[in-house]
Amino acid sequence: xxxxxxxxxxxxxxxxxxxxxxxxxxxxxxxxxxxxxxxxxxxxxxxxxxxxxxxxxxxxxxxxxxxxxxxxxxxxxxxxxxxxxxxxxxxxxxxxxxxxxxxxxxxxxxxxxxxxxxxxxxxxxxxxxxx
Amino acid sequence: xxxxxxxxxxxxxxxxxxxxxxxxxxxxxxxxxxxxxxxxxxxxxxxxxxxxxxxxxxxxxxxxxxxxxxxxxxxxxxxxxxxxxxxxxxxxxxxxxxxxxxxxxxxxxxxxxxxxxxxxxxxxxxxxxxx
Amino acid sequence: xxxxxxxxxxxxxxxxxxxxxxxxxxxxxxxxxxxxxxxxxxxxxxxxxxxxxxxxxxxxxxxxxxxxxxxxxxxxxxxxxxxxxxxxxxxxxxxxxxxxxxxxxxxxxxxxxxxxxxxxxxxxxxxxxxx
Lengths: 131, 131, 131
Fold this sequence. Notes:
The structure is a homotrimer.
Chain A: E1 3-7, E2 13-16, H1 18-28, E3 33-38, E4 44-50, H2 54-67, H3 81-90, E5 93-99, E6 102-103, E7 109-115, E8 121-130
Antiparallel strand pairs in A: 1-8, 2-7, 3-5, 3-8, 4-7, 5-6
């Protein structure tokens, strides 16, 4: 199974992986189907959102931090309970249609690996299912 | 690929599309598999929730607005950062099993296109994968 | 379609179902593909998160309760609007790759049925798609 290796450099970060996903779809030779992305981590996520203005990603991470404060009398001693909740809110998988060999992403959509407890080395698994 | 065209009329809105998804599944002739729904927009989402009492949808949109305020010192100049976060929280895709030609939705479940930055014209893509 | 029957015992609860999902994958004999999990309820969800330290689950449910208060002047008379929002935030479906007959879950990942309006009897549907 194709896998993308990543390295995050900040506590919270959204790393765009659209091109690497496109390359995996190209390489598979599958023209029509879906691509399934999965990250095997519990303090990370995969999401699809705007990749035109980097301020969107900045605002999204800021809003999430306000919603789920880093500390809040949590029991889990590792101190990353907020990251676990963010992971489940955005979700550790995403699925995108493939048509004529292309992802059917919208004009402003990019695929992001979301780091919520970095910096760390991370993985993203790619499964491509034909129609 | 079957596509549903939609038009939203409010800033925030949940538009039920269950019947249109059912029609696409019927037309495909596929009896067992999954239907994958994907919206190519960054300020919209797809979700499955109650379609019996319209107050549920009203409350859900109200709660989301309280959680992610429309303005909050965001950097993104288009002023729709809240909508981008809501999009990633609910997600731009959904997947439902098909069994004996029917969606296996529960009694109270309906499929919703979620608008978070309307009114706009929108698209929803439908991919049906056989088992 | 394989289905898991569950019984929740609390208002909010995350019930691990990883082993039962693994058993369904084993029984299918499918070695490479994806497993799709779907719950036909509107006040429940499926998520993947840490299964090593039970404090993580405790903190996640606490954080969600702080985010989406049980009462807040909601219109829906059943009084479970908060549970409906939590359901859409975590999502009623999840998809995991299968490789060499195994779920490709990370070391710390477990699959959870999330109850947000228990105690109740619940269902979780399992669809396994070969590559």
